[in-house]
Amino acid sequence: MSVASLIAADLLIAVLAAAGWLGGGAAAAARRRRLALGLAAGALLGTLARAVTVTVLARAGWWFAAEKVLVAGPLSLAAVAVAGPRLVRPPGDIRSAAVPLLFAGYAESAALLVTVLHGYPASAGAGLLAVAAVVGATAVSWRLLDARPSPTVSRTAVAVAVAALVTGAGLVATPAAAPAVPHALAAQDGRAVGEPTRRVTLTAGTATVRAAGRDVAAWAFNGQVPGPELSATVGDVLEVRLRNRDIARGVTLHWHGYDVPNDQDGVPGVTQAAVLPGQEFVYRFRADQAGTYWYHTHAVSDVGVRMGLYGVLVVRPAPAVGVDVTVPVHTLAGRPLPEARTEPVAAGTPVRLRLINTDSTTHRYALAGTAFQVAAIDGADLRGPTPLVETAVLIPAGGRYDLVFTAPGTPVALQVDGRVVYATGPTSVATGGWPVLDPLRYGAAAPVPWSRVDREFTLVLDRGLDLHGLLPRYAHTVNGAADPDIPPQLVRFGEVVTFTIVNRSLVVHPWHLHGHHVLVLSRDGRPATGSPLWLDSFDVRPGEVWRVAFRADNPGMWANHCHNLAHAEAGMVLHLMYQ
Q1: Contact at 8 Å (CB) between 311 and 330?
Q2: Phi and psi for 363 in degrees, rounded to 5?
């Protein structure tokens, strides 16, 4: 059973146990003896079953079980201790068991809410708030059911609840101290790279474009979606003039996966100000990194990219030979791009398909009709790629795979999620049952290029209630905090840095560090055994633990975030800062 399945199963058992205790208490209050005992017995079994799921989760990693052990555990023990005897020796008047059963229900519910609303890391504040809620709800139930506790008991319960509530609220509401992230950190200075050899102007504006046979409203570069494909040869100096015609919320250009100098990275509020209507900004950098990349706005990126502000960047080491096709996959106004394209290719012609996922979710690609190799991922060539047949690849949000093959004399078709987007002739092949390539096991291995690690960080990805803004919000969190309250990661130039990235949520988080490629060391404790895998975008699936490393060799302040851009807008953004 996978860790993700255990997380889901534990949550389901917790919900059923809480419902059973509460239902048993309500049935007891209504003097429905058999129903009360049946529900409570089921709840007791569920509560005991959680001891198994939590133990297994703790063995998978403390991140997955911290609050379950430290908060839910004591509350569950209290529930069993108070309500258990009423099941072993049911009282003559079952109504007298109502409050103990309700207490158990409140305890289980509070433990569940700590996981759902607070998550990782476990904190004394969350525990105290849970205790306050349980004591307060039990006292109210006691009064409503005319159990008539003594004045001393009532005063004690109220005092405990109030003290726990005040102390817990104070602890939870106090954010951890975090260094401030400066705005407009880097000033633009493209002169050091030399005179431009390629000049392009991109004008961002509202437009009506054609998508899957229908006119849709979009935001576009130069009136088209995707924007113009930018190409260069290694050694070129690119100068891209960005103009904003009428995008009221501003635009920038982020060169996704391209490790440009920090002042060219296009992150508003960090490396530059957003370009407002009527303004312009000039980007200039040397194309010294061959491969497949893409560009997109980083201003209100969730909306801007979804509406169409993106395009392709390809840097080749030499002029292309044979057929070289880019396939940027996107969803615009609910309609898939690109539309199907058929291009006859002579047998024996070398073909390179540059697959780019510009959406915020994973896509499944399958190449039917020929053997192929995965030559590069995220712009980095793979070592010793081997031929693949009837094998699909999953590309995370922001990721790129280069597939190469020699055109056969029969048709070849590229499918995305079962839909043909590129073909050399008419063909129809069912690919849904094909196995999926694991890139960590593909290609020829090579030694890790470092003998030491200088700095280590752990990022635990979760969801929780963020109380540090003007209004509470349910945010995507990192280590229990949401942007802008996540402390930056501080590194020094030349250090070898590792990230351990843990996903204890129930959704996929495609992770993306700006300005650097990371080397994948392991996933779920299993070392990578294939070609060295240098990535800038990778899916951390529910329950997974990735360990990656990089050398800090590109100074500045860099965004480090989930590339499901809705998750980033909802808090899952932090920054890597050079000291």
Answers
A1: no
A2: -120, 150
Q: Classify strands 518-523 and 496-503 as parallel, antiparallel or unpaired.
A: unpaired
Q: Please, are residues 221 and 251 in contact by the beta-carbon 8 Å criterion?
A: no
- Euclidean distance between CA atoms 453 and 559, whole angstroms: 22
Residue 285: C-alpha distances to residues 189, 218, 265, 436, 565 (Å) = 10, 29, 10, 37, 26
Backbone angles phi, psi at 40, to 5 degrees: -65, -35
How far is the C-alpha of 113 from the C-alpha of 128, rounded, in Å? 13
The C-alpha atoms of residue 210 and residue 375 are separated, in whole angstroms, by 32
Residue-wise pLDDT for 168-188, tens only, equals 444 444 444 444 444 444 434
Q: Are 18 and 109 in contact (CB under 8 A)?
A: yes
Mean pLDDT of 568-575: 96
For residue 449, the 8-state DSSP code is S
Answer whether 459's CB lies under 8 Å from 550's CB.
no
Domain 455-578: what homologous superfamily?
Cupredoxins -  blue copper proteins (2.60.40.420)
449 class by beta-carbon count within 10 Å (0-12 exposed, 13-18 middle, 19+ buried):
exposed
Nearest CA among 527, 389, 418, 510 for reference residue 461: 510
Instruction: State pLDDT tens for residues 35-52.
Output: 999 999 999 999 999 999
Under CATH, which number does the domain 198-316 receive?
A: 2.60.40.420
Nearest-angstrom CA–CA distance, 375 and 232? 19
pTM given for the model: 0.91
Extended strands (E) in 407-551: 413-416, 419-423, 455-466, 473-478, 489-491, 496-503, 509-513, 518-523, 526-527, 534-535, 537-540, 545-551
Task: Pinpoint the residues of the chain covered by CATH 2.60.40.420.
Answer: 198-316, 320-437, 455-578
* CA distances, 17 to each of 3, 9, 106, 108, 132 (Å): 21, 12, 11, 7, 20
Backbone dihedral angles phi then psi of residue 289, each to the nearest 5 degrees: -130, 100
Beginning with the edge strand found earlier in the chain, give each strand of the sheet holding 291-296 in spatial order: 230-233, 310-316, 291-296, 254-256
Q: What letter represents residue 39's amino acid?
A: L
Fold for 320-437, please state it.
Immunoglobulin-like (2.60.40)
